[in-house]
Amino acid sequence: MKSDTKYLISIVGPTAIGKTSLSIKLAQHFNTEILSADSRQFYKEMQIGTAAPTPQELSQAKHHFIQHKSINESYNVGAFEKEAVNLLNTLFKTHTIVIMVGGSGLYVDAVTKGLDYFPEIDKSIRERLNLQLKNEGIKTLQDQLKILDPESYNTITIDNPQRLIRALEICIGTNKPYSSFLNKNKNKRHFKTITIGLTAEREIIYNRIEKRVDLMLEAGQLKEAKSLYNKKDLNALNTVGYKELFKYFDNEWTLEFAISEIKKNTRRFAKRQLTWFKRNENTSWFNYKTPINDIIKAIDLKI
């Protein structure tokens, strides 16, 4: 290990696979601290339904970005990136290795790779585009993007009005294609990332998800969701495990159906997580039952 090289060990994988347990074992082995990159575990009001680390787990290693925000606060991936990188700069003064764990792919990438940065755009442009969408329909916006930025027209989800308007406002506000800003001017990281992925056969992942949902309900997820019901329109609560129970509270669904939907939507979420994380060819994947010493050996070979 080069004494001046710093390493971020990023642990990724689908929900319920055992990332929290592995992160604590690695933090203890390397005598270091843990950053959470789980965008829902940031919120202190959402403990049970986000499977946040328990008080016992939190006591086993120093954690950051766990229940440090309120659902009433405005917080996004850009703010997280700045705070996380600043914290890493501080931690790397006293640690050679730091652990990051989480299943929110965009938040993981924000720390390891950086976000695409765009100039500030006059708000009136977005207002005008929203009005155009309302009055003339999405087709006119799609045609406009095809002219201003053919590359984006062929690559972004043009059926998504939000994505479409975002691309158009950049094109109009800067007089440059939206695509010209992608993968440019990202802040260089002064650490190396070692990415460890945990996985299992799909049936095992799905069984673990179903068991976790049952355990959440036993732990009081229904009561937690009920306490947040009057704030259900907040963005933070548009989350699997809460939005389904809100349908039950609204008398739209039975409790049994709401629970089945939580399990189904969590399985779908796990599938999307794997698709996202599999894009990183540098990830070292391990079966979720792999002994910790084997994972430590693999890490040691990289540092």
User: CATH architecture of the largest domain, please?
Assistant: 3-Layer(aba) Sandwich
In total, the number of strands is 6
Largest sheet: 6 strands, parallel
Q: Estimate the helix proportion, in percent.
A: 40-55%
- CATH class placement of the largest domain: Alpha Beta
Radius of gyration, CA atoms, in whole angstroms: 21 Å
Indicate how many domains the architecture comprises: 2
Helix count equals 13
The class by helix and strand makeup works out as alpha/beta
Contiguous uncertain segments of 5+ residues: none
Give the neighbour order of strands across the main sheet: 3-2-4-1-5-6
Which descriptor suits the 3D outline? globular
Task: Report, as a whole number of angstroms, the end-to-end distance.
Answer: 5 Å
Order of helices and strands: EHEHEHEHHHHHEHHHHEH
| CATH topology name of the largest domain | Rossmann fold
Percent of residues in beta strands: 5-15%
Oligomer: single chain
Instruction: Tell me the CATH superfamily of the largest domain.
Output: P-loop containing nucleotide triphosphate hydrolases
Give your account of this protein's structure.
The chain has helices spanning 19-29, 55-60, 77-91, 105-112, 123-136, 138-148, 150-155, 161-174, 202-219, 221-227, 243-249, 255-277, 292-300, and strands spanning 7-12, 34-36, 63-64, 97-101, 192-199, 284-287. It is an alpha/beta fold and 303 residues long. The chain has two domains: 7-115 and 186-300, P-loop containing nucleotide triphosphate hydrolases (Rossmann fold, 3-Layer(aba) Sandwich), CATH 3.40.50.300; 123-181, Histone, subunit A, CATH 1.10.20.140. α2 links the parallel β2 and β3. α6 (138-148) packs across α8. The radius of gyration is 21 Å and the shape is globular.
